[in-house]
Design brief:
Layout: H1 14-20, H2 23-29, H3 48-58, H4 63-76, E1 115-116, E2 123-124, H5 133-138, H6 140-143, H7 162-165, E3 173-176, H8 183-195, E4 203-206, H9 227-234, H10 236-245
Parallel strand pairs: 3-4
Antiparallel strand pairs: 1-2
Length: 254
């Protein structure tokens, strides 16, 4: 396994190497989960990079956050290296970790997380019933007023009616056309359920930005153009004017 000091290229895939050496099993067998070192003070003396990697693990950084920090340091030219003979205190934070050792709060790793309850001294853990995140988005008109427990517009009712508690419906809603099956839909479903009417009077829907092949720009496709590069090159007002004048607001932009 080698690493080029100039371009940082590994001549072998790191995940493949870790897999071949049974790295995940090794960490678990050595008490990697923290059970053997709980409530103990341990002095660790090592070289620069092992200590830096240990610190990122203890901070519960995931792979993306670790790479982001390294990129920021490379861009700024300021590196958080350990100095010769430097001593640092590392606070151990136990976090669910995947087989690569990165913090991972998805199932099944999050199921290993247990918190003590300050109210009853019992243990708390993830419940299997997880509601879809779109429910939170659809409940926005009510949730922003903490309905029915609180009230923005004062009402004498113990559980105030929506018309006395929140501004409903909204005059307009503005989002991309893809929200027809997303936010527009979830807002409408919950609004009709609780109020028997639409939560918005008007819909303003703008088109999507497409690549040179007419495909929607997407992170998963990797065909996105950095908008800040365009703004830095031409100026943000020019970019705004282009999107406003190139065609009708509701049409896609290529």
């Amino acid at each position: 396994m080698g690493n080029c000091g100039s371009c940082k290229h590994w001549d072998h895939d790191k995940h493949e190497i870790l897999n071949d050496e049974g790295w995940g099993e090794c960490k678990l067998s050595e008490g990697y989960e923290g059970g053997k070192i709980k409530n103990k003070t341990i002095l660790i003396i090592s070289h620069e990079y092992p200590l830096w990697m240990l610190e990122t693990v203890m901070r519960s950084w995931g792979e993306e956050q670790t790479l982001l920090v390294k990129q920021e340091q490379e861009q700024s030219g300021i590196y958080d290296f350990f100095g010769t003979g430097e001593s640092r205190e590392v606070v151990y934070m136990q976090a669910p970790r995947n087989k690569w050792g990165f913090a991972d709060f998805h199932r099944p790793y999050v199921d290993t997380v247990i918190f003590p309850c300050n109210a009853c001294d019992k243990k708390m853990k993830r419940v299997p019933e997880v509601i879809d995140g779109w429910f939170d988005s659809g409940a926005m008109p009510f949730a922003q007023a903490h309905y029915p427990f609180s009230c923005i517009k004062k009402s004498g009712a113990q559980i105030p009616a929506p018309e006395n508690c929140i501004d409903f419906p909204g005059d307009f809603i503005a989002e991309g056309v893809d929200q027809t099956r997303g936010w527009f839909y979830s807002l409408l479903a919950i609004g009709v359920l609780l109020k028997q009417e639409s939560p918005y009077r008007n819909v303003i829907s703008h088109g999507l930005v497409l690549d040179s092949y007419g495909r929607k720009m997407s992170k998963s496709r990797g065909n996105m153009v950095d908008p800040w590069e365009i703004a830095d090159k031409f100026g943000i007002d020019v970019v705004r004017w282009y999107f406003y004048t190139v065609n009708a607001p509701g049409e896609p932009k290529r």
